[in-house]
Design goal:
Blueprint: H1 15-21, E1 53-57, H2 63-82, E2 89-92, H3 109-116, E3 122-126, E4 130-132, H4 134-141, E5 151-153, E6 155-156, E7 178-179, E8 185-188, H5 189-201, E9 208-209, H6 212-221, E10 230-231, E11 235-239, E12 250-252, E13 257-258, E14 268-273, H7 283-288, E15 296-301, E16 310-312, H8 323-333, E17 343-348, E18 351-353, H9 355-362, E19 372-374, E20 376-379, E21 386-389, E22 395-398, H10 399-407, H11 419-430, E23 435-436, H12 450-454, E24 460-462, H13 469-476, E25 493-494
Parallel strand pairs: 1-2, 1-3, 5-10, 11-12, 13-25, 14-15, 14-17, 15-16, 19-23
Antiparallel strand pairs: 3-8, 4-12, 5-8, 6-7, 9-20, 17-22, 18-24, 19-22, 20-21
Helix pairs in contact: 3-5
């Protein structure tokens, strides 16, 4: 979606979301039931056979993530073999579709139904960092009648209506529950089969995929005609191996991937998009918060201001979208005007970002590969569309990705085109997958579920609207020794 920094008024009104806000979601609290069924199997029923469960790892095509997911797949199979269970089917979701639609799950429901609808009882989805205890999971799923429709997970809810969920349930946002993917979540096969038929018979209504976990829950609930999420306390996001996780069927390995020495900050060039009217309002926030952690940074504006300083790229400011400016930054990155680095980060002037955490995260990626990293959105995925990195949370490029992009001659169709969406189209055309990290955020902390953020060490947030950005930075993104830091997280684990 367009992420230019100089839209009039609140950028909340950006045009790519405006169609989504009109999705009718009208429900009172009494219309949503906490439990979907009155009948749950008792403990006396037989345990499931492991072969009745199809495991789907929500994997990605980037080499780091693909290797990580394959390692997880082998761990599941080894755990099954050690328990003398029948080996289950374990799938990597990025391999299940020819384009990038697989990660949005709904477009591949018909495939799940056609392939596994008769001989399996459950599809269990898990993220790359989710750890399974197979005996506990079998015990947990056996409590639920596999002949009924079930949607199981660890519930999240919004404390206030939020832009990323299109202001759904504005009267009482806490009433609607959606799954925390990191804890794993399950769909019974009767529900899979019905959803597959629905996907085939009715076109997916929304062109945009913004927050998949919320949108899938809405799709399944179907304005009260389908099941709501059933909370399952054994599906957890507690730290793997902690005493608090002893009764959990799932746990988390890490909150922030770290694969060795952090990338040198001198190997990361940061480009900040701004415009004249925000020089005095937003740039001082950047300088007061995260600029001190950046070794190489330039501010790009429609007006050269030596006091900041800013660079005028000769691209006039536009009222929406900033594709011309972004591609001018990409060209400059490969020129001799700036020091040669392996990584480019493009942010808005109201992006809050932790450079030290980004250095750790980038240690897991190979700069010799074309890497395009950030928070992933989708457009038209149900009809062969594309994924893109939404710009407000920050877009990270390896040098190789920029080289291939500019060599392709894929360019903006206008200076005011949505830069992040154009980039998504370009990389899709090149066969280069965008790489998602949930640690980048297009919105403010208040726009996300507290339980969801509780197991993250975030890299970025976006927007200054109705917040004190310095306070938000100190609470969520500052380093432990930064003045005013209020850091709550410590769970960083080095990948082997």
């Amino acid at each position: 979606m367009p992420t230019g920094t100089c839209l009039p008024g609140n950028k909340v009104a950006s045009f790519c979301l405006i169609f989504l806000y009109c999705i009718p979601v009208i429900a009172a609290a009494k219309d949503i039931k906490e439990d979907n069924h009155s009948q749950v199997q008792g403990d006396s029923k037989r345990l499931l056979d492991l072969k009745e469960i199809v495991f789907v790892i929500q994997s990605q095509g980037n080499s780091f993530h693909e290797n990580h997911a394959e390692k997880q797949r082998q761990e599941i199979l080894q755990q099954a073999a050690n328990s003398e269970q029948n080996l289950p089917i374990v799938l990597l979701i990025h391999k299940l579709s020819e384009n990038e639609a697989g990660w949005s799950i709904l477009p591949i429901m018909p495939r799940f139904s056609a392939t596994y609808g008769r001989n399996s009882s459950w599809i269990f989805f898990l993220e790359e960092e989710t750890t399974l205890k197979i005996p506990k999971l079998l015990e947990t799923l056996s409590r639920f009648d596999k002949e009924q429709e079930w949607f199981l997970g660890k519930p999240l809810h919004d404390d206030e209506s939020t832009i990323i969920h299109h202001y759904a349930f504005a009267d009482n946002p806490t009433v609607f529950k959606y799954p925390d993917f990191a804890a794993g979540w399950a769909l019974s096969m009767p529900l899979i089969n019905r959803l597959a038929k629905k996907v085939k018979d009715e076109p997916l209504k929304s062109d945009f995929t913004i927050d998949l976990k919320h949108e899938i829950a809405l799709y399944i609930w179907e304005n009260g005609n389908g099941p709501s999420l059933t909370p399952v306390q054994e599906l957890c996001t507690k730290e793997e191996g902690s005493p608090a996780a002893k009764d959990c069927a799932t746990t988390l390995k890490t909150y922030l991937s770290f694969c060795g020495d952090p990338v040198d900050k001198k190997d990361i060039f940061i480009a900040v998009k701004t415009c004249r009217k925000f020089h005095k309002e937003r740039i001082p926030v950047v300088k007061k918060t995260w600029q001190k952690h950046a070794a190489l940074i330039e501010y790009y504006s429609d007006h050269a201001d030596a006091t900041i300083p800013t660079v005028n790229l000769g691209i006039p400011n536009t009222e929406r979208g900033h594709c011309g400016k972004t591609f001018a930054i990409l060209e400059r990155f490969l020129s001799e005007a700036i020091p040669k680095t392996n990584w480019l980060v493009i942010v808005d002037d109201d992006t809050l970002i932790s450079v030290p955490r980004l250095q750790k995260l980038l240690s897991c990626y190979d700069a010799n590969e074309p890497v395009f990293l950030g928070e992933r959105y989708g457009y038209g995925l149900g009809i062969g569309g594309y994924s893109y990195i939404t710009g407000g949370g920050g877009m990270v490029f390896s040098r190789e990705a920029v080289v291939r992009l500019l060599e392709s001659n894929c360019r903006c169709y206008s200076n005011d085109a949505p830069d992040d969406m154009v980039l998504g189209m370009c990389f899709n055309g090149l066969g280069i997958p965008v790489t998602h990290s949930a640690l980048f955020h297009q919105a403010r902390p208040d726009d996300y579920s507290r339980d969801y953020l509780a197991h993250q060490i975030p890299v970025s947030f976006h927007k200054h609207w109705n917040i004190d950005p310095v306070t938000v930075f100190n609470k969520w993104l500052a380093e432990e020794n930064d003045p005013g830091s209020q850091q709550p997280h410590t769970m960083i684990r080095e990948e082997l």
